[in-house]
């Protein structure tokens, strides 16, 4: 889950200093002119080269997610395919799914939702490629497997310096940067809803997080496997309630989304470009396809064939954007509230729309949803930091230091302004994403070989395709 700096409830800064302006200019340029174009281009490229793997093997993706046929040998510990999926989905589904969609509609109009859907359909192919690579180049760890961009960059490309850069950027971006901003959101939400002191909230969240992350990947996987389905299904249920209450308006909402995505009136008014840009940007940074975060979770799964986890992780993009983001979009559009920004932007607009349908409990529900969305993101992004720290060392004391620093970020995040931190985080993430995409392009033949092998076995009637134990070669 990707969030955005202007969506956070932080003290306003009247005149940003020159350093902040420069950082934000660099971050915006990397996203708007480079990363978005590259991510979309690679999504199209991988969709074509895999013959639309996200569509033609969609049934396999769904079956693999819940089937769980892979079991540990001799009672050894392992992380299941579903648990690895839950960890990655925890990082994808966050406050951006609630606030980012509202901002996209406010700025770009309802047509932005259509372009979010398009980016998800293309991004699923990119997610498939990076997750399959993570499986192909994963390594044996103490209680599970471990891997991610740093691992396949070093082993596949032989570029140690690039792998080190990727690992460092993931630690800074996800373990530290995302922890700060997600916990800032939690603190602000509880302070606004209940009047609770945000620092006290931060300490409580830090204690809860500590109980989880000190249990290692096994506990992280088990907790996210419970939280993620709970929060996603809960949000889906409330969206269904709003849709049923406004069932006659749904056909109009769908027409509005499609017409706004292509309409001549929007083009004449300059909104068509805004709809495309907002939809693409929010979609890409909500589902994280290609940014190099989810492969860290994908590598942990114990599966008999690397393509299996690739298919499961591709499904995560659909769930994040096509399901969860669409829930927010239909809540906003079906409620009939003013979407011009008069009722707020981002999370405030989502709260207002839901409250207009189900009363004051709507604002409370969004606050609780925010907590679970943001907290699960912090759990997952902490693990991304741990996986990349292990790229450098397996000693216990650095892991202990990382955990203490992350817990400190939880508390700090509830009591500081984050403009500078977000600008730096955005720059780090953009560079990390570009490093990852280069590796995906160069190493794609490895993925294609694995995909062809999986497809060949399935066509031959093999129900459970198996690949050689590549991590032991």
Low confidence ranges = 1-14, 71-75, 266-270
Give the rounded overall mean pLDDT. Answer: 81
Q: Report Rg.
A: 21 Å
Helix amount, in percent?
Answer: over 70%
Count of helical stretches: 19
Decide which structural class fits the backbone: mainly alpha
Quick one: biggest sheet? 2 strands, antiparallel
List the quaternary state of the chains.
single chain
Q: Strand order of the main beta sheet, please?
A: 1-2
Number of strands: 2
Dominant shape: globular
Q: Strand-and-helix sequence, N→C?
A: HHHHHHEEHHHHHHHHHHHHH
- Intertermini distance: 34 Å
Strand content: under 5%
What does this structure look like?
The chain is mostly helical. It contains 19 helices and two strands. A hairpin with a 4-residue loop joins strand 1 and strand 2 (145-146). Helix 1 packs across helix 6, helix 5 (95-108) packs across helix 15 and helix 6 crosses helix 19. The protein is globular and about 55 Å long. The protein starts with 17 loop residues before the first helix and ends in a 14-residue tail after the last helix.
Features:
1% strand, two-stranded antiparallel sheet, 19 helices, mainly alpha, 473 residues
Entry summary:
With about 475 residues, the chain is mainly alpha-helical. It contains 19 helices and two strands.
SSE diagram, text form:
Layout: H1 18-49, H2 53-56, H3 58-67, H4 81-92, H5 95-108, H6 111-136, E1 139-140, E2 145-146, H7 149-157, H8 160-194, H9 198-213, H10 216-245, H11 250-262, H12 264-268, H13 271-287, H14 294-298, H15 306-335, H16 347-358, H17 361-389, H18 396-413, H19 419-459
């Amino acid at each position: 889950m990707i969030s955005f700096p202007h969506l956070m409830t932080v003290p306003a800064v009247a005149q940003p200093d020159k350093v902040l302006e420069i950082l934000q200019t660099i971050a915006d340029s990397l996203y708007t002119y480079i990363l978005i174009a590259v991510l979309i281009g690679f999504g199209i490229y991988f969709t074509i080269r895999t013959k639309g793997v996200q569509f033609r093997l969609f049934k396999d993706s769904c079956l693999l997610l819940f089937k769980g046929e892979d079991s540990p040998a001799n009672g050894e510990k392992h992380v299941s395919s579903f648990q690895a999926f839950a960890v990655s989905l925890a990082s994808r589904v966050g406050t951006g799914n609630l606030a980012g969609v509202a901002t996209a509609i406010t700025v770009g109009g309802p047509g932005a939702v259509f372009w979010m859907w398009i980016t998800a359909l293309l991004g699923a192919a990119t997610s498939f490629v990076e997750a399959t690579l993570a499986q192909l180049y994963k390594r044996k760890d103490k209680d599970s497997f471990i891997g991610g961009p740093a691992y396949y960059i070093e082993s596949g490309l032989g570029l140690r310096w690039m792998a080190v850069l990727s690992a460092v950027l993931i630690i800074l971006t996800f373990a530290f940067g995302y922890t700060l901003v997600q916990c800032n959101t939690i603190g602000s939400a509880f302070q606004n809803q209940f009047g609770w002191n945000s620092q006290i909230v931060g300490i409580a969240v830090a204690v809860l997080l500590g109980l989880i992350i000190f249990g290692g990947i096994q506990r992280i996987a088990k907790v996210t496997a419970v939280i993620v389905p709970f929060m996603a299904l809960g949000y889906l249920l409330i969206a269904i309630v709003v849709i049923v209450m406004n069932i006659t308006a749904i056909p109009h909402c769908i027409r509005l989304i499609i017409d706004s995505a292509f309409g001549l009136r929007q083009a004449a008014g300059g909104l068509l470009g805004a709809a495309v840009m907002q939809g693409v940007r929010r979609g890409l940074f909500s589902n994280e396809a290609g940014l190099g975060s989810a492969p860290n979770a994908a590598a942990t799964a114990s599966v008999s064939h690397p393509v299996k986890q690739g298919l499961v992780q591709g499904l995560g993009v659909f769930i994040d954007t096509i399901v969860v983001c669409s829930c927010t979009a239909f809540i906003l559009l079906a409620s009939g509230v003013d979407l011009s920004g008069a009722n707020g932007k981002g999370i405030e607009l989502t709260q207002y729309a839901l409250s207009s349908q189900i009363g004051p409990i709507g604002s409370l529900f969004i606050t609780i949803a925010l907590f679970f969305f943001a907290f699960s993101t912090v759990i997952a992004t902490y693990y991304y930091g741990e996986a990349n720290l292990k790229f450098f060392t397996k000693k216990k004391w650095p892991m202990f230091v990382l955990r203490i620093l992350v817990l400190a970020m939880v508390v700090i995040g509830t009591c500081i302004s984050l403009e500078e931190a977000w600008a730096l985080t955005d720059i780090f993430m953009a560079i990390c994403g570009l490093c990852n995409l280069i590796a995906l392009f160069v190493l794609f033949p490895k993925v294609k070989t694995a995909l062809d092998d999986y497809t060949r076995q399935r066509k031959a009637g093999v129900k459970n395709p198996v690949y050689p134990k590549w991590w032991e070669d």
